[in-house]
Amino acid sequence: MKEKIITKASEMFLKLGFKSITMDDIAGEMCISKKTIYKYFCNKELLIEESTTAIHKQIHQIIDRIIAQNYNAIAENFEIRKMFKEMFQSSDDSPIYQLKKHYPEIYEKVMTREINECNTTFEQNIKKGIEQGFYRENINIESYTRFYYYLIFSIKGCTSSEKEAQKIELEILEYHTRAMATPSGIIELEKHLLNYTTK
């Protein structure tokens, strides 16, 4: 039952926001009593913590599956961006923005957890792109990884509209890729930008 509550709460938090959803809402959606939820979670903050952990795990499992498909480095980044777009497409308000605004301590824990995971993914992508000839060989990988991370997550935490956040994140991906790209990388980037915007 605990896992079912986490799964349903995670789904509702992503769709409607961490602040908007109450324990009553979750209980009503699951057709259980609020008392049942409190049996496993003494307060909403604990449920949010467990839910963000579950969401984090789900996201990185999907990212791992995308990486395992062996796309080229630029295509890989666009596939990951597509995954985020699909996952958050039903949200009007940014869940990350709500988390930062209303539950700052949990937000800080989430961001700390994301640093290691995302930095590793970004770094591996840059190394792959260099090997494939899409990114320049003289890149300072550590700096570019850090730049991209800070740009992406500063937008997520400071933009209240999910639609606006996704638009800016795509622009950041383009900016990040152009800064690293070789001529063949630019051609690959333009192809994916065209496909992404026409879908």
Would you write up a description of this structure?
The chain is mainly α. The protein has one domain: Tetracycline Repressor, domain 2 (Orthogonal Bundle), CATH 1.10.357. 80% of the residues lie in helices and 0% in strands. The chain has 10 helices and no strands. The chain has helices at 2-16, 23-30, 34-40, 44-68, 73-87, 95-102, 104-132, 141-158, 162-180, 183-198. α8 packs antiparallel against α9 (162-180). The chain is elongated, with a radius of gyration of 18 Å. The N and C termini lie far apart (39 Å). The model has no long low-confidence stretch (mean pLDDT 90).
Q: What's the pLDDT, averaged over the residues?
A: 90
Q: Globular, elongated, flat, extended or rod-shaped: what is the shape?
A: elongated
How many structural domains?
1
Class per helix and strand makeup:
mainly alpha
Keywords: DNA-binding
GO molecular function: DNA binding
Pfam families: TetR_N
Organism: Flavobacterium bomense
